[in-house]
Design goal:
This protein is α/β, with parallel strands linked by helices. It is 41% helix and 10% strand. An eight-stranded mixed β-sheet has the order 1-2-5-6-7-8-9-10, with helices on both faces. Strands 3-4 form a two-stranded parallel sheet. Strand 9, helix 13 (338-350) and strand 10 form a beta-alpha-beta unit. It comes from Kwoniella bestiolae CBS 10118.
């Protein structure tokens, strides 16, 4: 049983018996005894208030009664330093049955696309086509990159999750269902892996070719920095048709645009080694690279970049406008007009590139470019088959029989 001590009971009795205290809200007594309603100097004259309206200020500015700052001291809200987005860069929000079906199918197989991760403006156009026309660039090895390029919106992590061993099979299964003639694969950089993910990419390409032998495969690859040239050769000789690796920008801007582990000369060596690795394996491939405009490059630097790409035997080049994914990424230096893109297309074609796609909304995996490359590769293969048949028919019976005995 709880008992109160004498002091405690006395305190309790005082609390109970003491006078009650009532609390209420109160207004502080003004120091000036004069009533606010009778003070004619409390607010500025009505005319001065309306004069402030002519200065283009807000409602709060002219009713506050405070002194206004000088024009050169006022804070201007909104982004006035960045150029406004031109109308030719605005795209409608992607919708439609084909778009929804592709998205649902990719989610069901646990696949990622660079279309979504990089916030590509052409996603509605590419995913919105009918069966056989819709395209999606599948991003291998997860959605977390070990690099942190200042233009890219793909998530960054020092230690991404382990590779999905079922991804090559799931990717090949999804692509075979679409019934496409051309597919683009890309991937994040995985510097944490011993081979940079080269074997994983090569396995995906091989499985696609097994399930759909007629499909043409383009792979937009990492640079496999410090992993050895064998990693590049592994991908280049895996059966792909187009080996793509982007220099992204001119050499001077590279340290400010790309991750510091990526280099301009390093990217050129990747493209050169890809051609060499495919040739050593008895395969013929096209090499491809892309350049972003609007990051601070100069005209002479673009000319030099094109010259060095041709020197590295690159077949295809694309030009596109850099568009800032979020406010955390680097700012747009300028928005390039369509006329300038047309000029660079003409310049690049004059330098001997097989195909050039150039426009504000052109990206590395560009639908129109893929169709052109598909036709080029098919014509080349048809010509090679005709040449092989002609060579076989011109062989003498003695050489044919000798070859048959040797093969037996």
């Amino acid at each position: 049983m709880l008992r109160l001590t004498t002091s405690a009971s006395t305190s309790a009795s005082r609390i109970i018996a003491g006078p009650s205290v009532r609390r209420c809200l109160a207004t502080a007594v003004p120091t000036n005894p004069a009533s606010p309603s009778t003070d004619t100097t409390a607010a500025p004259p009505r005319r001065k208030r309306f004069e402030k309206l002519d200065d283009g200020l807000t409602f709060d500015d002219f009713v506050s009664g405070q002194e206004l700052p000088d024009a050169n001291e006022r804070v201007v809200l909104g982004n006035t330093t960045q150029p406004r987005l031109p109308s030719f860069l605005k795209h409608p929000i992607p919708t439609g049955a084909s778009y929804s079906n592709i998205k649902k199918e990719l989610r069901g197989l646990g696949l990622h696309t660079v279309c979504e991760e990089a916030k590509c403006p052409n996603i509605g156009e590419c995913w919105g086509g009918g069966k056989g026309n819709a395209t999606a660039t599948i991003m291998l090895m997860g959605d977390q990159c070990t690099r942190g390029c200042r233009f890219c919106s793909v998530k960054t992590a020092r230690a991404p999750p382990p590779l999905d061993v079922h991804e090559p099979e799931n990717t090949a299964e999804a692509i075979s269902r679409w019934g496409l003639g051309y597919i683009v694969l890309t991937s994040v950089d995985r510097d944490d892996l011993v081979d940079g993910g080269a074997a994983h990419i090569a396995s995906t390409i091989s499985k696609i070719k097994q399930k759909a032998p007629k499909i043409l495969v383009e792979a937009l690859t990492p640079d496999f920095a410090n992993k050895g040239v064998d990693t590049i050769h592994t991908v280049a000789s895996s059966g792909l048709d187009v080996f793509a690796h982007n220099v992204e920008t001119v050499e001077r801007c590279t340290p400010f645009v790309r991750d510091r582990r990526a280099g301009f000369n390093q990217s050129l060596r990747v493209l050169e080694e890809a051609k060499m690795g495919a040739k050593n394996a008895g395969k013929e491939i096209l090499t491809k690279s892309s350049i972003m405009l609007g990051v601070g490059e100069r005209e002479d630097e673009i000319h030099e970049t094109l010259r060095r790409l041709r020197q590295s035997d690159v077949d295809v080049v694309t030009f596109g406008q850099y568009m800032r994914p979020t406010k955390k990424h680097m700012k747009v230096d300028r928005y390039v007009q369509p006329e300038e893109f047309a000029k660079w297309k003409e310049v690049a074609e004059g330098m001997g590139f097989l195909y050039v796609a150039s426009g504000p909304l052109v990206r590395s995996s560009y639908k129109a470019g893929e169709f052109f490359i598909e036709n080029v590769l098919k014509k080349r293969r048809a010509a090679a088959a005709e040449q092989a048949a002609a060579n076989l028919s011109t062989q003498s019976p003695e050489s044919t029989s000798t070859a048959s005995v040797a093969s037996a």
